[in-house]
Design brief:
Blueprint (H helix, E strand, L loop, with lengths): L4 H11 L3 E7 L5 E7 L7 H4 L1 E4 L13 E6 L5 E2 L7 E9 L11 H15 L4 E13 L1 E7 L2 E7 L36 H13 L4 E6 L6 E6 L2 E2 H21 L3 E3 L13 E9 L2 E2 L12 H21 L18 E5 L5 E4 L12 E3 L8 H18 L16 H4 L9 H10 L2 H4 L6 H20 L3 H7 L3
Parallel strand pairs: 1-6, 16-17
Antiparallel strand pairs: 1-2, 3-4, 4-6, 5-6, 7-11, 7-12, 7-13, 7-14, 8-9, 10-11, 14-15, 14-18, 17-18
Helix pairs in contact: 3-7, 4-5, 5-7, 6-7, 6-9, 9-11
Length: about 475
């Protein structure tokens, strides 16, 4: 990958590239893009950016102040493998074209402010994040919502409900039972080659890869493993991950979704996020001989995550569908405790042996509908607040939470049960996000308004299952 603007411009010339695709993340974490002719890109472009109209991007500029500029990051250059004409892709941050200042609602610019705040805090100088995204692959997806009706339908060749389906050439069985999708081999696992192509394609684009496998969800749930990276690079990698997954899936006649709960009564999809802080090249989370070998710094960081989780879930779990996964009594990580083994805990301490450099913590409650720039920045800010205030997370919880009597379980805090619940928590608790001007009041208010509108849309519409419950009542 290129390291400088000159490297990018030289590559364009040497390879005879004619098209440059500029990509940026909107508030919701979706990539938007503009393709330009190569001769529009010069040294100046990497400083002042290329102008565009930001008034049509959800939650951004009003039409009377719509001018914005995309500033490409030369370190992110890669050839997009899904385009017919050879096209160089560059990931951008957004800035104000007149002042040259970073745009306050640009997620990637916000993440850059988070790193600047970290560097100025004196607590650490590097934050590593290792996201683990899960998703579903379907062969057929249909849905609709109008005044006179609402429905959805998803289908997978592996799904247990298709064991009796008439299929062209005969039904060869090999369907998976509900919640039994973890680690089967082909022919039950029909997605091996698709996942391999996804993973190797990501590697070609510079994403550090590790593994892939079928996940627990029997109707086509998958996971591709990528390595940790510095915060912004990790968020860039999540965006590339989604881009590759969706486009490879389409190539094979499948469709991918990162919705946390697209299938009833089976496992939902999360985005577990490993994280650690370093200073002067040394890890800060290792403490030999303590619970899970956690340093005091790591314990305070966990304390910040657990205290502020109800509010930053507005960024790590930003959809109404997110809370159909986070339901108490199942395997979902809803309990605001930490543990070295309990996977229903919000924070888990992965096994790392006696290697200080591998010591990290894993926040398990989030999902891949999150905008990664916002989610990683919000968790970092919560952890830093924990260190700054020396927030004690209490003792690690290694008991089987499913076996606890109700009176004991009631003493354990859980995440809010709905999107409007976490938005209320964000409204009440966001001072820690404002430190260093990383987030702003304007950003918080804009986010709450956008997400409250989504809550309201669901509140106003009859749900198909309500007809099952109430139609003949």
């Amino acid at each position: 990958m290129a390291n400088s603007a000159q490297d990018v411009l030289r590559r364009i010339k040497e390879e005879g590239l004619e098209l440059i695709d500029l990509k940026f993340a909107d508030l919701h974490g979706k990539w938007q893009h503009l393709t330009i002719c190569a001769d529009l890109l010069d040294d100046h472009s990497f400083q002042t950016g290329l102008a565009f109209d930001g008034s049509s991007i959800r939650g951004w500029k009003a039409i009377n102040e719509s001018d914005m500029a995309m500033v490409p990051d030369p370190a992110t250059a890669w050839i997009d493998p899904f385009l017919r004409h050879k096209t160089l892709s560059l990931i951008c941050s957004i800035q104000e074209p007149r002042s040259g200042e970073a745009y306050g609602r640009c997620p990637r610019s916000l993440a850059q402010r988070a790193l600047a705040h970290l560097a100025g805090s004196g607590l650490a100088d590097t934050a590593y994040f290792g996201p683990e995204l899960e998703f579903f692959l379907f062969e057929d997806v249909r849905y609709g919502s109008s005044e006179g009706g609402c429905f959805y339908s998803v289908d997978s060749i592996e799904a247990p409900w298709n064991s009796g389906r008439l299929e062209e050439g005969g039904n060869l069985a090999y369907k998976m039972n509900s919640k039994q999708g973890y680690f089967p081999v082909p022919p039950s696992d029909t997605f091996q080659d698709i996942r391999s192509e996804m993973l190797l394609t990501m590697a070609q684009l510079g994403v550090p890869i590790e593994k892939h496998h079928h996940e627990v969800g029997a109707a086509g749930q998958q996971e591709l493993g990528i390595r940790f990276a510095e915060l912004i690079s990790a968020a860039d990698n999540v965006m590339i991950y989604k881009h590759v997954v969706r486009n490879v899936a389409r190539k094979y006649g499948r469709t991918a979704t990162f919705m946390p709960k697209p299938v009833f009564a089976d496992n939902g999809s999360g985005m577990h996020v490993h994280q650690s802080l370093w200073r002067d090249g040394q890890p800060l989370f290792f403490g030999l001989g303590t619970y899970a070998d956690l340093s005091q710094t790591a314990r305070w960081y966990i304390g910040g995550l657990l205290r502020h989780a109800p509010s930053f879930l507005a960024f790590t779990n930003p959809t109404t569908n997110s809370y159909k996964r986070l339901v108490p009594g199942f395997e979902a990580p809803v309990n605001l405790v930490y543990s070295q083994g309990n996977r229903s805990a919000a924070v888990r301490i992965p096994l790392s042996g006696d290697n200080p450099r591998a010591k990290r913590l894993e926040f398990r409650s989030g999902d891949a509908m999150a905008n990664p720039y916002l989610a990683f920045s919000a968790m970092l800010m919560a952890g830093l607040d924990g260190i700054r205030q020396q927030i004690d997370p209490g003792d690690g919880m290694d008991l089987d939470l499913f076996e606890l009597p109700p009176e004991d379980l009631e003493q354990i805090a859980t995440v809010p049960a709905s999107l409007d619940g976490v938005l209320a928590a964000l409204d009440a608790d966001h001072e820690y996000l404002l430190a260093g001007n990383v987030f702003s009041e304007d950003f918080i208010r804009t986010w709450i308004a956008l997400k409250t509108d989504e809550v309201q849309q669901l509140r106003q519409r009859p749900h198909p299952h309500e007809f099952t419950l109430y139609y003949d009542g």
